[in-house]
Design a protein that fits this description.
There is one protein chain. With 168 residues, this protein is α+β, with helices and mostly antiparallel strands. Helix content is 38%, strand content 19%. The chain has helices at 2-30, 40-44, 92-103, 112-119, 126-134, and strands at residues 56-63, 82-89, 140-142, 151-156, 160-166. Strand 4 and strand 5 form a beta hairpin.
C-alpha cells in the first residue's frame, strides 16, 4: 500500500507529460505554413461564407508566429493571431452578386503595382499570378463580406477573389 502512494503521482505526471508532448506535435502539424488547404468547411471556420459560398478554394492559414513565406510575423502576436492567404472560386451568379455589393463600397486607394505584389502569393499557381499581372485596372476592396475583424483585403478576378487577412 505504501508503494501505491508513490506510483499514482508518478503515473499522473507521466500521463501529463505525454499529453503535453502529443498536443505540441499536433499543433506543429496543423500550423505548418507550407500546407495549402482546399477544405471549404475549414475555411468556413475562419471566414463567414454564409452569403457568398465558394465552389472551391485554395488557402494558407498560419499563426503570425510562423508567418507565411516572405511575410513578416507581428512583433507582438497573440495566441490567436494569424495570417490567411486565400483564393475563393465562385459560380458566375455568385461572383456577380459579390461584384454588385462591392460597387457600393469604395475600393482602397493603392498603387496597382504594390497590390500586384501583395496578392501574388508565393504559392499561387502561375496561371493566377499571370491573371493578376494582366488585369488592366486592379482594385482592392475590404473583405468585409467574409471577415469582420482584423485587417482584410481582396481583389476580384474573373471567377475568383484573392483574399489576404490577418489579425493582430
Amino acid at each position: 500500500m505504501e508503494k501505491l502512494k508513490y506510483i499514482i503521482p508518478i503515473l499522473v505526471i507521466a500521463i501529463l507529460i505525454l499529453t503535453l508532448f502529443s498536443c505540441k506535435d499536433k499543433m506543429k502539424r496543423n500550423t505548418d505554413s507550407k500546407i495549402i488547404y482546399r477544405d471549404i468547411k475549414m475555411l468556413g471556420n475562419i471566414l463567414n461564407l454564409s452569403v457568398y459560398k465558394p465552389d472551391s478554394t485554395l488557402f494558407k492559414y498560419a499563426p503570425l508566429l510562423s508567418s507565411i513565406e516572405g511575410r513578416q510575423p507581428s512583433l507582438l502576436p497573440g495566441p490567436k493571431d494569424y495570417v490567411l492567404e486565400a483564393v475563393l472560386y465562385f459560380k458566375p451568379e455568385t461572383m456577380q452578386k459579390l461584384k454588385n455589393k462591392l460597387e457600393t463600397e469604395a475600393p482602397y486607394p493603392k498603387d496597382e503595382e504594390s497590390m500586384r505584389q501583395i496578392f501574388s502569393f508565393n504559392w499561387l499557381p502561375d496561371a493566377i499570378k499571370k491573371e493578376i499581372q494582366q488585369i488592366d485596372t486592379l482594385r482592392e476592396y475590404p473583405a468585409t463580406a467574409f471577415f469582420n475583424t482584423g485587417t482584410s483585403q481582396m481583389i476580384l478576378l474573373k471567377d475568383k477573389i484573392i483574399l489576404y487577412a490577418l489579425t493582430n
